[in-house]
Amino acid sequence: MPKIVDHDQRRMELVNATWRIIARHGMEGATMREIATEAGFANGALKPYFPTKDDLLAFAFGHVFNQTNARMAAATRGLSGLGALRAFCREILPLDENRINEARIVIPFWQKALTDESKARLHDDAMEQWRTHLLQQLHEAREAGELRAEVGDEDIAGHLMNLVLGAQITAVLSPAHYSPDQLSAQLDGYLQLLAGGTFSSPAVEKK
Amino acid sequence: MPKIVDHDQRRMELVNATWRIIARHGMEGATMREIATEAGFANGALKPYFPTKDDLLAFAFGHVFNQTNARMAAATRGLSGLGALRAFCREILPLDENRINEARIVIPFWQKALTDESKARLHDDAMEQWRTHLLQQLHEAREAGELRAEVGDEDIAGHLMNLVLGAQITAVLSPAHYSPDQLSAQLDGYLQLLAGGTFSSPAVEKK
DNA sequence: TCGTTTTTTCTATGACTGTAGAGAATAGCG
DNA sequence: CGCTATTCTCTACAGTCATAGAAAAAACGA
């Protein structure tokens, strides 16, 4: 029997190589040749694992979402209400180099989704899932009396969704005015508005 | 003397054709041939007006910003404070078909800006200009007593910037949950948070 | 009507792309 | 050591793209 490779693991290596290329050289630089080279292979070696480029990209984009979702689940474990909401949003905000790179991936993804129905659906599903989480956490916050604002939960969830998505853009394209510290302060400022001026953010582990 | 064309006007025709193509078929469909055809010309006719594709795109993107800025100037004339702020943001939000198409343009633009220094600078300058306007309007609102929130103006301006940018994405990729009506309500909800629960939006001219 | 100058068309070119598939290289097993 | 199934390399191909530039067309003044 010949050399045996773990196909799933290999796929993950290729996805990570893709991820690095897009973060470094943008989507234009993400050619099959470049990706293969980055992963340490020659041109045609990707085909057995991803028969087409679109398969590779779809898998790569999905993986970024899964990564974020896993982080969010871990970060909100044991929390509820505004505390959970804050932890949740902080996992999406580009607050470190890794998440800034994720922003560099998601922007090209949005552009693809504009003309690719299946990617648009993938995005819509993920965003709907996030929105549902936010609404749940807002509901908890209402019940706990943490949330006194006379604005509908739907609108608040919309604010937060647009805020964290917009932050993907500003963090990458205007880093001077939207540094991690500033984005973090922005989120806490918004939560303070929600709480009616009484919300104080937990001690923030620096960096 | 031969046929004479107004070069500036011709450039504008070409930019509008580009704009239509990108809105309809996405950035991938915006080839020189397609743009020329859309404008009613043959392949090579663009060169005298835009020597290279990048020149054309840079001009087209700049034009969208100018268009938005002109609209904002008109919409805020005679207003100040929160009223001006509201009118200002409403000109950026994708509240009608035209502005939804602008969102379809700006998303590919962001992606280009990720790896194109000059486009990144163009974006940063425009965003900085908008942010300055917002800060000015917030200052007016503070002086007029419209704004009681105990959150810094910098953070509020950041909220609004991220909100209107995020709305470009949600409006196009999740139109079901971010319709013009919902985005408009979101903005007013946020302003209500700012005013401390007392802000009531002016009668909205429907559509 | 003709001639000149601008404008536009049309074809060619070279670069780059994703994909395909034949062959070589490789590694585990007898 | 040798066999064989798997993995990988390499070359080739068809398509698309931006761009260049020669030639044709058009329009205005005389």
From TrEMBL, chains A, B:
Record keyword ATP-binding present: no
SUPFAM superfamilies: Homeodomain-like, Tetracyclin repressor-like, C-terminal domain
Native species: Arthrobacter crystallopoietes BAB-32
Name the UniProt record assigns to this protein: TetR family transcriptional regulator
Alphabetical UniProt keywords: DNA-binding, Repressor, Transcription, Transcription regulation
Lipid metabolism in keyword set: no
TM segment ranges: none
Alphabetized Gene3D superfamilies for the sequence: Tetracycline Repressor, domain 2 (1.10.357.10)
DNA-binding region: 31-50
InterPro entries: BetI_C, Homeodomain-like_sf, HTH-type_TetR-like_transc_reg, HTH_TetR, Tet_transcr_reg_TetR-rel_C_sf
